[in-house]
Structure formats: C-alpha cells, structure tokens
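This protein record is not my work; I was only asked to verify it. The record follows directly below this note.
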Amino acid sequence: EPESVRQMENACALPVAVRGALMPDAHLGYGLPIGGVLATRNAVIPYAVGVDIACRVRMSVLDLPLDSLSSSPDRFKKVIEKETRFGVGSSFKKRRQHDVMDEDWSFTPLVRRLKDKAWAQLGTSGSGNHFAEFGELTLPEDDLGLEAGTYLALLSHSGSRGTGAKIAQHYSKVAAGLHPELPKHLTSLSWLDLDSEEGQEYWHAMELMGRYAAANHELIHRKVVDHLGAESILNLENHHNFAWREEHDGQEVVVHRKGATPAGEGMLGIIPGSMATPGYVVRGKGHPDSLNSASHGAGRAMSRKAAFKAFTWEEGREFLASRNVSLISAGLDEVPMAYKDIEAVMAAQDELVAKVARFDPRLVRMNQGR
C-alpha cells in the first residue's frame, strides 16, 4: 500500500531512526504502519509500539481427542462463552487473580491510577480483531515436542486492554510535547529519549503491560482448559506490539514491532489468518533485512468502514460454512473477505519464517458487532 510505504519513509527519516522494514501484511496505522518494524537509537516511540501495548497471541494444544469438538460443539461453545469476555470495558463479575497485580503499579501516578481498571479487566479481551477460538492444529512431522498429527488447540489474540491504551495515549502526548519541531504529519512519530525520565517511565510501563497482557492470555487459557477438564500439552505465545533492545548491524538499537512477529533464528511464533482462514506456527529464520521480524497475521485488505459497505452477513456466513467454521459472535468488519490472502502473505515471507504447523479455526468468538 502506498500509504504504508509513505508512513515507513517518514519514520525512517526521523533523526533517531536507524532503519526499518515493512512486513507483507502491512497497512495504514497511526504513526507507524501496522506491519511496520523500526529500529531507533536509544529512543522509544509510543505510537510505533502501538495503542494496544503488548497485543499478543497464545496457543494451547489440548490433550482432548480432536473429534470431541465436532461431537460436543455445545459443550465447547458454553465454555468459551463462560470463560471469555470481549469489548470495551468488559469485565468479569468476580475479579480474576494473577501475580501480575501484586507487582509495583505505583512507579508513576498514571499507572497507579490505572491499576484498578487493569484488575477489573484482567483475563478479558478487547474488540476489533481480538478473538478466542478452538481449531485444528496440523503438525506434518514430529516437532514442538509432539508427534506428527492433528490436535485440538485453543488460540487467543488480545492485548493490554484499556490500561495499555491509556498509557499509550498519555506518553504519545508527552512525546509530542517534547518535539514541537516536528511537522504536524509527523507528530504521531514523536519519541522519548530512553535516558530521560519520561522515556524510562514509558519503558517501565510498556514492560508491565507486556506482563499484564501475558497474564490476560494465561487466565483465559487456564480457565477454559480447566473448565474442560483437560491438560495443555503445549503452550506457545508471542507479542506483536512491543519494543525490544536488540543488536543489529553491530549496534544496540530499540526495535519497534507494530503488528509484527519476532522471527529471530529458531524463534517460534504464531501468525493467525482470519476467523475462517488458516494461521501458522512458524520458526524464524533471522533474516537481517526484516530486523528478525515477520507479519503478525494476514493483514486487512480494506478499512473497517469499507468492509461494512462491501459485505453482508449472508456472504460472511456462506464463507464460514464453506470452511466448516461456527461463529459465536463478531462484527461484519471482521469477515474473512476483509483480509488479505494469508497464503499469499506467507509466500511473500518464506525467507523470514518456515511453517511448522497449520491452525484451522472451527469455533470462534469475537466481540459482538453489527
């Protein structure tokens, strides 16, 4: 997309930028395009991390027979409805518990104020493209500590909820205030020097949101698996909205991956498709040109507004039925036709990652939309 390329060129022109890369699922975002990777010198850009700090995916492979999903669909539907919550402000009546809430949330007044909000939403998921779904994981050969075969798996996608969004918005404004020299179209790329108090505050908050987002997924999977009376025989997970200190080209840099999967050599990751198209467990090849990164999904082929105009639920349900997918809830803007072809995206990055296993969704829950 020309606009994604333009956004990336703008980011690479920043005085703190070292270099960047665009993933094959890239599309327009705030500041940095989604699917954009940017390395900077001793600086962090809040909007290059993303509004949903530490958005991530997690997969649990279950010890249940694969046909248990098709033979008892209502059982799995009831479990996923009971143990997940979606949407802005969603929460459980009885708060969930996790050690992340025992950490220090008082290192800034903002984070301290947000602790109660974070706790209320602990173990829940956001709106948009966030999901929890059961599906079939096909492993073509022995790997991941498992024998070749087809398994029942749970896959989830969500981030740091309203708390992460508040932190992102606050520090993006702080960064913009520190760089009045930037033209208006570059304001969203304002950065924080990591030697500054503001930079240290944001970095500390970002890392806390990483652990908080991981806790959300851990709780979702633990509650669902326990409710089913099952065991997880494999767990995989990764962030795709985060910043890391890494070494590239012989220097230490801050690598922002906004909607991009870490793909260092040998590193395992998960790249979902859509609610009715495959996702893949991948192993990174550590390609230097991509800054050891890959796509975070298929990527949108059109905006949400355009999707509402282009498609009907009749078309969406026909597509779902053709792929043997049952949908509990979602918005029309999330139908598979609104996304790029996952197979084309994967083919475009075969230098970046190797496919290890394929995940096909079968029972999907997302935020209830129109």
